[in-house]
Amino acid sequence: MNSFLIIINIIVLLLLIVGMAMMQKKHVSFSKRVFTGLGLGIVFGLLIHILYGTTSFVTTHTIDWFSIVGSGYVKLLQMIVMPLVFISIVGAFTKLNLTKNIGKISFLVIGILLGTTAIAAALGIGSALSFHLDGVHLVSGEMEKARNAELAQTVGTVKDATIPQQILQLFPSNPFQDLTGARPTSTIAVVIFSAIVGIAYLGVKRKNPEQGEFFAKIIDTLYAIVMRVVTLVLRLTPYGILALITKVAATSDYGAIVKLGKFVVASYVALIVMFIVHLILLSLAKLSPVQYVRKALPTISFAFTSRTSAGTLPLNIKTQTNDFGVSEGIANFAASFGLTIGQNGCAGIYPAMLAVMVAPTAGIDPTSPSFIITLILTVAISSFGVAGVGGGATFAALIVLSTLNLPIAIVGLLISVEPLIDMGRTALNVSGSMTAGILTGKITKEIDTNIYQEPKQKAVEA
């Protein structure tokens, strides 16, 4: 009987996919198909949750099959991250897009990411204090104890890693290893390696124009192929979101969410306010926040459902260049740096909130100006090297709490609501990197404002 029910669920998913494919044949816009997948996934996931429960045999095995679509899509996106970063940045040099402003672009992107992370930390502190969050009364069950035991193995490594050592991790010692994504900081390492290759190309071009021209043609050809692969994968976005959000809605522990509801609400208040800060920054740059929301929403929605900034990278870059008119060089720098530096949600709001919650247990007044200033600076500096995949926020929290000599057990006590909060954090991370790219493009005048102001979002088509 259970196997029959699982087959029925799979058939329903396939029918939904066929229906969405028909929408594409009728040339329904990309954004509408994305939100259709989101809506259908929520409804379908809730039905599975209500009918079979969260951890039943039917639900568990149904989600395993659904993961072929959802997790498979995320893996395809991750597959093209490193080739896309490398070829796009080197291509920016061969197309002379980065030769004049590379230093300024890097400084602005990193500066905006770190600055917004500091603001996010301040908002996280404010939200935790406003909601009177207290880590003392959190109860640990079997799952929480197991998580803390797992985290205890990581604490020693985190404590031993100084800020200079964290920065050193950004540099590529083996670019071929980093191209495989072997380290949490591999993406930034590939960015640095790509920039070095691009600078080397400029030197070769000056001394031997023929070799330089030949190399540029190779890069242009590879760029065309990689971007075609990106387009093909991005066409699967509505189906990927459908499967991913179905899993979230079907397997979420709603009882734990209610129990820790105050923390969840406080987290989302801080996340939403920080998103409004992004809109304010765009308004100050004389760019329409309404257009930003309209065009960025499909990308942010995918980040929300997938919980991976790295997996969202191709869509992030495509949105910046196609919909906002940001130059390819800046879009790649902002999106790539945003994976591991200055993540507003994971490295900004989350560790700041946890620090405020546990500070009283260490005899520290969380409202003390000296503590608040120290915490904001620690969060901003520690935001270097946070991995752009699920679990990055946990690592960021461990770094901040360990640096301030605060208890780390609270990180494990929140495991039951981690997926729900991580969805919002990841969406904010991606919004932060897109905002950094747009603002950098505006300052350096490498953004086509006519494309930005176009009222209709372009669809991702073949």
Briefly, what is this?
It contains 21 helices and no strands. The protein is mainly α. It has one domain (1-453): Sodium:dicarboxylate symporter (Proton glutamate symport protein), CATH 1.10.3860.10.
Describe this entry's structure for a reader:
The chain has 462 residues and is mainly alpha-helical. It has one domain (1-453): Sodium:dicarboxylate symporter (Proton glutamate symport protein). It contains 21 helices and no strands. The protein has helices at 2-25, 30-52, 57-94, 102-130, 142-160, 163-168, 175-178, 186-207, 209-234, 237-251, 254-259, 261-284, 289-306, 309-323, 328-340, 344-358, 369-382, 392-403, 409-413, 418-444, 449-453. Helix 1 (2-25) runs antiparallel to helix 2 (30-52), helix 12 (261-284) runs antiparallel to helix 13 (289-306) and helix 12 packs parallel to helix 20. The radius of gyration is 22 Å and the shape is globular. The relative contact order is 0.17.
What is the overall silhouette?
globular
How many discrete structural domains?
1
Beta-strand content: under 5%
Q: Give the low-confidence spans.
A: 458-462
Q: Do you know the CATH architecture?
A: Orthogonal Bundle
Tell me the name of the CATH class. Answer: Mainly Alpha
Total strands: 0
CATH homologous superfamily label: Sodium:dicarboxylate symporter
Mean pLDDT: 85
Helix content bin = over 70%
How is the CATH topology named?
Proton glutamate symport protein
SSE sequence, one letter per element: HHHHHHHHHHHHHHHHHHHHH
